[in-house]
Amino acid sequence: MNVTFLGTGTSHGVPQIDCMRSDYALCRNDVCRKAEHDPRHRRMRTSIIVDVGGKSILIDVSMDFRQQMLRENIRAIDAVLMTHAHADHIGGIPDIRSYTPADGHKLDFYSSSETRQKLRQSYDYIFNPDTFVGGGIPRIQLNEIDQAFEIFGCRIIPLHVSHGAMAGCFGYRINDLAYIPDIKRIRASEKRKLAGVKVLILDCLRIEREHSTHMILPESLALAREVAPQRCYFTHLCHHIDYESDSALLDKGMLFAWDGLRIEG
Question: Which residue of 31, 117, 205, 256 could cross-link 214, Cys pair, CB 3.0 to 4.6 Å?
Answer without folding.
Answer: 205
